[in-house]
């Protein structure tokens, strides 16, 4: 009987629970007040008696009201805790559906469950689209780099060779023509150097030929030391070959971080560490330059369409990794990337 009453109370809407509870408080208060009034009229009372009995009545009413509100709002508190656990990844969406609750809360949990499922479905679709876009971008980078190397690069090299030959066949007294040919050769050589830099930025052949560590080492020393920034590299001697998606992701993150150091940090030194844990690979990049407020930069990046950190986070999310950023105007910037790794994916060199 008692259990049946409790189940019916749980299915009662919150509004009616509170209304019934307050009605009971009013009725009980009126009855108790009537009884106390009759008692006080039959005895000698003072002001302190009235204050005492009034205070007791107020405290009892407040206590009963608090208990009623706690019991009535318990499903909402449970719902709030469940939502927080889902947000922290400690619970599933199915746990939102609280059993034996009132219709209003039940409808609210159904709406929240449907909304979360829709968001998860949309996020999954966005992740798939983002993965396809990044993979297509990498394939296009390879294609463009190969085309520039095989076509434009070869044409410029042939042009430089022919200009050198022409210089040798021009009579020594044709100073003006010799100077023009020399100027054209120097210009073509400069264009070839610029083209090679573009090709290496698009897709460095060293990444495919020699692997991740030589590629990061080459890119860091070429760009950081070229900008007057001392770089310290902390790489293990026996790091095995990583799967290509992870190698590409780590290299692109390093590339973006190095470019940010050069463009924004005004640093004097930087440190790049890469290593292998039990089931993960980590990358740490730090500098001693002018830091920034990560929250403010993240919000401004969307408005100004600066996608550096957003691109890093997107690549990390695609491989289910973790990303942390620590920056302070007086102590520089440190980024830490941790990517999961299955031992079956590791290939030992040699």
In terms of per-residue confidence, which ranges show pLDDT below 50 for 5 or more consecutive residues?
343-350
Provide the succession of SSEs: HHHHHHHEHEEHHEE
Which word captures the global form? elongated
What distance separates the N and C termini? 76 Å
The CATH C-level name of the largest domain is Alpha Beta
Mean pLDDT: 76
Q: Remind me, CATH topology of the largest domain? A: Heat Shock Protein 90
Number of discrete domains: 2
Summarize it.
By secondary structure, the chain is of the alpha+beta class. It is 67% helix and 11% strand.
List the helices and strands and how they pair.
Layout: H1 2-10, H2 14-42, H3 47-87, H4 103-169, H5 175-202, H6 205-209, H7 212-224, E1 230-234, H8 244-265, E2 269-276, E3 280-287, H9 294-304, H10 308-318, E4 322-328, E5 332-340
Parallel strand pairs: 1-2
Antiparallel strand pairs: 2-3, 3-5, 4-5
